[in-house]
Design goal:
Shape: globular
Distance between the termini: 34 Å
Strand content: 5-15%
Order of helices and strands: HHHHEHHEEEH
CATH architecture of the largest domain: 3-Layer(aba) Sandwich
Number of strands: 4
CATH topology of the largest domain: Glutaredoxin
CATH superfamily of the largest domain: Glutaredoxin
Radius of gyration: 19 Å
Strand order of the largest sheet: 2-1-3-4
Bound molecules: FE2/S2 (inorganic) cluster
Structural class: alpha+beta
Largest sheet: 4 strands, mixed
Number of domains: 2
Length: about 170
Amino acid sequence: MEHSLTAEDQAHLEILQTQIKSSPKGRGQLIPLLQMAQKVLGYLPDDALSLVADHLSVTRSEVYGVASFYNQFRFDPPGKNPVKVCMGTACHVRGGEIILENFERKLEIREGETTEDREFSIERVACVGCCALAPVALMGETLHGHMAPSKVEGLVLRVRVEKEKAEREASKS
Ligand code: FES
């Protein structure tokens, strides 16, 4: 999914540009510069790849090729409520895949993607250490055990209702 840059992204890109300018050049710098970009922006939008490419005098597709090889790099902005579905053995056996599918269907995005409003993103993670509660998912920092499709619906709804409430409050003041 294409995400347009927010004002915050633009500000971060300017910070990144300054940091890149004072960084050493050379192909060996490619990974460190990508890591720097992801640290500043939280992900790697096209403009960040271009900044890195220009600095190292390589093509943007070359930079993208390297970045997409490593799963430490993400090309979608992180959601404000990142959903992490555990796919460790215990959770997998108890239906983790079904929970993941339910989040994907409910949010209309695939694993690794972020909703257009940047509210949610979905990723699968390895065992989070609470196997007795399998299947497990995290919404932000909060762990939810014994997940079921009906709980998926409830968790998403709760975030959306709270967001609407906050927006209403903000428009009143
Ligand atoms: S396998 Fe999911 S918490 Fe351990």
